[in-house]
Specification:
Blueprint lengths: L5 H8 L16 E4 L5 E8 L7 H19 L4 E9 L2 E8 L2 H8 L3 E5 H6 L8 E5 L2 E6 L1 H5 L5 E7 L2 E4 L3 E5 L3 E5 L2 E4 L8 E10 L1
Parallel strand pairs: 1-9
Antiparallel strand pairs: 1-2, 2-4, 3-4, 5-8, 6-7, 6-10, 8-13, 9-12, 10-13, 11-12
Helix pairs in contact: 1-2
């Protein structure tokens, strides 16, 4: 089981039901980067015993969100849904940008064009694989990537599932598994924590 972020773990351990609605349907934990950079996440965990305390959960979750939003703008981070069914907890959140996600969780999640990413200092000095019809088909070079127009990139150092708004064309590293044409699963194999020392590039159109 992948460890989730400290905030999410704490929320789950205080778990109860919070009414709300999330439009992102998934069987597993996932980070979905939308076209204009807004981020939706769903985290799911199963525990061997029940945790509950509605008052503490609401106070803890709202305090963390309010503290962040006070410095970064109202609505920068929104808690959309929390449910607890049996011993399985689901937490859905929304972030106004990848920068908000990164700052809130203290990880890297970047989205932009190839040129913008290079300008931000991302080196692209990694091994790439070509993806066709949702499957990795072989190796690729940075020259192959630069030869194509209209590509966007997500750079992330999370061990998690990532969904993009487009068709994935290239991925970096051997730690990436294709789930669908728009979704990958990242696991660097070093440990089970969310944050990784490995930066993964997901290039899509």
């Amino acid at each position: 089981m992948k460890k989730i972020s400290y905030l999410i773990l704490a929320v789950f351990m205080l778990g109860t039901m919070l009414t709300g609605c999330s439009s992102l349907e998934t069987e597993d934990s996932i980070v979905y980067i939308q076209k204009k950079g807004k981020v939706q996440t769903v985290d799911k965990e199963t525990f061997d015993k029940e945790y509950y305390n509605e008052a503490d959960f609401k106070a803890f979750a709202q305090e963390a969100i309010d503290t962040y939003n006070a410095s970064n703008g109202e609505g920068a981070v929104v808690l959309k849904e929390f449910t607890l069914e049996g011993n399985t907890a689901k937490l859905a959140m929304e972030y106004q940008s990848t920068a908000d996600y990164s700052a809130f969780h203290q990880v890297t999640l970047y989205q932009g064009t190839i040129a913008e990413a290079v300008g931000e200092g991302y080196p692209f000095d990694v091994e790439f694989s070509k993806v066709e019809n949702g499957e990795i088909t072989g190796s690729a070079t940075i020259s192959d990537i630069l030869a194509e127009d209209g590509l966007s990139v997500v750079v992330v150092n999370n061990n998690t599932d990532i969904k993009v708004s487009g068709t994935i064309c290239y991925v970096s590293g051997e730690h990436v598994t294709m789930i669908a044409k728009d979704t990958v699963s990242i696991n660097d194999g070093e440990d089970t924590s969310v944050k990784s020392d490995v930066y993964t590039y997901i290039i899509y159109k």
